Amino acid sequence: MEPNSREFYKQCAFQKFCNTVLHNEACDAHRELHRHKAREVTFSDLPLDEARQLHTFDEYFKRETAETVFEKAGKKITPKLLLEAIRTLPEEKRKAVLLYYFEGMNDTEIAELFNTSRSTIQYRRTSSFELLRKYLEENADEWDEW
């Protein structure tokens, strides 16, 4: 069956329209590239005062050198001292504290991980505070040189 002339005319008109749109878009993209190229300057061609404005200094690691110190009852507690205090805990208590406070797990999730009850994990975690407090009270003054 042969298409009628009216349908053929519509197809040709639509094809011409599509070709015109694509041609105009290509011309616009070409002009845009030339505009960018005309304004583009290499770093080596920039004046020194303009080149200096294009950088920034990273202040992130400067904060690491100034260690945060907490003071409680006249004793200074540093992160290094706290780390050492956590290391002195028995392994099961240390794991419970680390998973709860540093990994964001709740007591139920930790209990499932160790195949024990939730109350056991809660006891390990809360009883660790007394051990940590004692260690920090005894050793806070010795760690000032850190």
UniProtKB/TrEMBL annotation:
GO terms for biological process: DNA-templated transcription initiation. The keyword Cell membrane does not apply. It comes from the Bacteria. Keywords: DNA-binding, Sigma factor, Transcription, Transcription regulation. GO terms for molecular function: DNA binding; sigma factor activity. SUPFAM superfamilies: Sigma3 and sigma4 domains of RNA polymerase sigma factors (SSF88659). Residues 81-124 form the RNA polymerase sigma factor 70 region 4 type domain. Pfam families: Sigma70_r4_2. InterPro entries: RNA_pol_sigma-70-like, RNA_pol_sigma-70_dom, RNA_pol_sigma70_r4_t2, RNA_pol_sigma_r3/r4-like, WH-like_DNA-bd_sf. This is Sigma-70 family RNA polymerase sigma factor. It comes from Sporofaciens musculi.
